[in-house]
Amino acid sequence: MPSDPPDLPPAAPPVTPPVVPVAVPPMPVRPPAVPAPSRPDAAAPAPVIEPLFTSAPGLNWAVPPLAPVPPAPLPPAADPRTSAELPPTARDLELIRTSLAVVEPVADRATAHFYALVFLGHPEIRALFPAAMDVQRDRLFRALLMAARGAGDPEGLRTQLRALGCVHRRYGTLTGHYGPVGECLVATLARYTGSRWTAETELAWRRVYRLVSSIMIEAAEEDARSSPPWWQGEVVAHERRTPDVAVLTVRPDQAYPYRAGQYTSLETPWWPRVWRHYSFASAPRSDGLLTFHVKAVPAGWVSNALVHRAAPGDVLRLGPAAGGMTLDHADGADLLLVGGGTGIAPLRALVEEAAGYGAAGRSVELLYGARRAGELYELDGLRELARRHRWLSVRPVLSGPGAGTAESAAAGLLAGELPEAVARFGPWTGRTACLAGPPAMVRRTSGVLLRAGLPAERIRHDLAAR
Q: Which member of 141, 245, 290, 412 has the lowest number of beta carbons within 10 Å of its beta carbon?
């Protein structure tokens, strides 16, 4: 018989690792200060701007902090007489236009190559962009090309670039990021310009990029002295008005300055670094709360998250207020407000602000359109405002199923598209028009008003800025 196997030592009992409690920081008394980034030519390294969201109460998502990048100024040309630090010349602008004409037909491939250079050579910059690049992939590259194209209009360019520099603060852009991005831009242009790329062309692009980056850096540093790169806002109310439209009320973590008619950019915890524009739906309130109307659109990452997923207690991030569709109360001109769908949000805010100023003797005509009667979700509130203020007239317009029926007529709903309704109820001479809603509607309505003789400076919308 085979011998018995030797005795084996008993197995060691499993070891349960100790439970380490998670340290929860106390609620901050006030938001952390935002240091101003240093100039690229300063001796000290650029300070790290602490993101406000790391200490937000009720925080429901976390994004790893960005690694600081030391300033990397663009290398000047060897010959001081042709230094890249000099302003662009007329010859430089001619070379820029020529090379742009060569690159634009292959802009998609050039964009992909540009980001490959940036992310492979400088992986720390990858954290500034969303995980999925299909939405915002070409924005930076095309913005750089736009800026180069406008270098011949210094004042107009400065206005655009200052706004762009402030906006990039919300992404976490630091002064040191501009140098590497500029080098990757030059390398991309050299590859896709081919035989047209010369030392003179490269110098022209370096001069233009230095001009562009210096304006953006200056604006960002100035903005950092008075405001954070973003605000945090806690959702305190979420009301579904239709199956795909929600009204969100948000409490910012500190004072948030804006004007009725403006908009902001929102980022959700579910899609980090993906920002979308939404208009304020109320004039500034004494309690500091902000209101937004959001419609979930097909394949809309942020809009679907805000409508179908957001709930009280969730924390959003807000960029600074932007947009020029605001009222000049010293003007006192009568107003024409035309809004389609959730485009009614900034127009309602304008009505509230006009009411707060006593309307200054002006009359306000508001045309509010939708395809179906159920989509006129703000109509009851607007009619209540019209009952309280005789200077306000509200005309609801229905363009889809049910338009023109006896039932809709009895409900006071006009039939037709908004642009046609605007043409039908004119003239609008002497008025200031504010338009908001689907881009096609805004463009058509603007064309109707221009053909009717309303000057372009009297027609306000924010399509170009978005």
A: 412
